[in-house]
Amino acid sequence: MAHRVLVFVEQREGTIKKASLEALALGARLASEAGGTMAAVVVGKDPAPLAAEAAARGAAAVYAAAGDGLDLYATESYAAAVVRAREQSGAGMVVLAASAMGKDLAPRVAARLDANYLPEVTEAAIEGGRLVVSRPQYAGKAVWKLATDPEKVVIAARPNVFPVGDRTEGASAETVALDVSDVTPRGRVVDFHTAGKDTVDVAEAEMIVSGGRGLKGPEHFPLVFDLAKAMGAGVGASRAVVDAGWIDHDHQVGQTGKTVSPTLYVACGISGAIQHLAGMRTSKCIVAINKDADAPIFKIADYGIVGDVFEVLPKLTEAVKRVKGAS
Amino acid sequence: MKIAVCLKQVPATDSKIKPTADGKAADLSGVEWIPNPYDEYALEEALQLKEKHGGEVVVLSVGGEKIESALRQALAVGADRAVVLKDAALAEAGPLAVSRALAAMLKREEPNLVLCGKQAVDDDAMAVPAMVAERLGWPQATVVVKLEVADDLASARAEREVEGGHETVELALPAVIAAQKGLNEPRYANLKGIMAAKKKPIDTVNAGDLGIEAPGTPAVEVLQVSQPSQERKNRMIEGDAAQQAEELARILHEDEKLI
Q1: Same domain, B139 and B244
Q2: 3.60.15.10, 3.40.50.620, 3.40.50.880, 3.40.50.1240: which CATH number matches A5-178?
Q3: Which residue out of B169, B176, B183 would a mutagenesis test of the A interface target, given it has the greatest number of A Cβ atoms within 10 Å?
Q4: Cβ within 8 Å of A, B 18-37
Q5: pLDDT for the residue B116
Q6: Contact status, residue B85 vs residue B138, Cβ threshold 8 Å
Q7: pLDDT, position A48
Q8: DSSP E strands: which ranges in B64-164?
Q9: Containing domain of residue B41, as a range?
Q10: Which of these, A306, B67, B169, B171, is most buried using a 10 Å CB contact count?
């Protein structure tokens, strides 16, 4: 069988990122729907362990670009690896996770191939020989259902949307060494520093607790952090409080912030401006806590509490700790 | 230092986006058009770099007739001149086509640095900056929150936002930088700037002049544009704060099995 789909596998500290596991599961399904197999491409200093894991996740062949200079991300080198792996594997479709790296890399690859780029895809299937995808635009205010030729396309799968597939222990794949040592990147990552926070990044978080103007001041944001910590959630924020300087903009959810799709979104003291709702409305379960019973956020909430965040949040944090501790 | 800024015009972020009657596009009649918010961070950074290193800020755009107002706004806050490819169909043709046109315009300008917004808040593709960089063979840094350009204009250091932290990217110039919120605080135009902008040049180019040739990329067909609808339980939890908190924690734990 021919390779139909090539999946770019992203790692962090030697482990495949969850969003890439989702991309692998999606890639395997699309390859099978197209009547072929999936190939994967891994890049790094020593990507061999990733190759084995990609095989367990359904890759029939793994293209591995190894080298000291490939430890940290360099767009041009990584793009060369993806383009060469696609060429050698014969796969027409490239699938990446719409992570920070994926969103930097995918359009570069698409431009080199002059292939259509379908970003932030939330549904994808092969139907009647065509690739049919859904992708939100305007931060999710509307969804486009699109069809194109699966043989020349790059798609980036939105994290936390597609399921992670099963692992097949002991599965093996043909491993092919890729050489990109001839590429001298003119731009490269030289350093990474963590945000230094003990919370999950909002873009990757499976649960998010978000704070808005109802918190009245930055000195009260710890109420949100405490609940997030008790739940193991990331911390989000409305644009109003980011613009007021209460919290860094990398927490902002909404049209000029991040679009998120967690399993649980708890909006605390957020009234629900259209730009904010656009960024979080696809969350699977939405909880709203707000003093104003007429706040628009309640219209899209599964569970609502009309109440004072200063009273409710500390009690909710305690209650969450209790139910989690009891199980 | 010559700095090029790529500018797009988008519907205001408080616009309601509805499908057209045939469900094949978004109905944008009656929306207010604004410069893409992220492009304002790109422009501000360009103006600050010009203040530090001297030189010129040129704004480039591909758009329809309405683009003029966004260009005048950019000139009013301090850009020196603008070049526009007025072609509404091309502007709508997607990032592959738009990046091809912008790259052709940039080749004529030969800037030291290109600044773009990290994404346009209409199609949310985050594609044009990287595609422009690829077509020019230049390096890129996207989602940038901090930028330092070396005095000899040979290199730059950019900090980009990634999951859980920041990456530092070293770039040889010329390069393409895509600006994220937080890079700076965009300035407002004053009356003097608005008056001065009326006299600043906006040059028009057309696709023929640029000699753009589009390869045979397969078409993307729009099957349907729809508004997301998700059934919500809309269940209000009553009681005092302690009861509400208890009940919500119980629901999330027992019923929803989320925590």
Answers
A1: no
A2: 3.40.50.620
A3: B169
A4: 18-19, 26, 37
A5: 98
A6: no
A7: 87
A8: 81-86, 113-117, 140-149, 155-162
A9: 2-210
A10: B169
Q: Chain A to chain B, count of Cβ pairs less than 8 Å apart?
A: 277
Q: pTM of the full predicted structure? A: 0.92
Q: Cα distance from A298 to chain B (closest Cα, Å)?
A: 7
Quick one: average pLDDT of B52-62?
Answer: 97
Q: Are B220 and A116 in contact (CB under 8 A)?
A: yes
When pLDDT is cut at 50, 70 and 90, the band that residue B162 belongs to is: very high
CA–CA separation, B192 vs B172, rounded Å?
Answer: 37
Cross-chain CB nearest to A187 (options B18, B131, B175): B175
Domain boundaries, chain A: 5-178, 207-326
Q: Is there a contact between B219 and A148 if contact means CB atoms under 8 Å apart?
A: yes
Go through A234-254 and write b for each residue having 16 or more CB atoms within 10 A of its CB, e for each that does not. Answer: bbbbbbbbbeeebbebbbbbb
Nearest in space to B8 (alpha carbons), one of B50, B36, B41: B36
Please provide the average confidence, as pLDDT, over all residues in chain A: 95
CA A178 to CA A99: how far, in whole Å? 23
Joined together, the tokens standing for residue B99 give: 């990046």
CA–CA separation, A258 vs A236, rounded Å? 9
Q: Considering only CB atoms, which chain B residues are within 8 Å of A147?
A: 220-221, 223
Per residue in B100-143, pLDDT tens?
A: 999 999 999 999 999 999 999 999 999 999 999 999 999 999 99
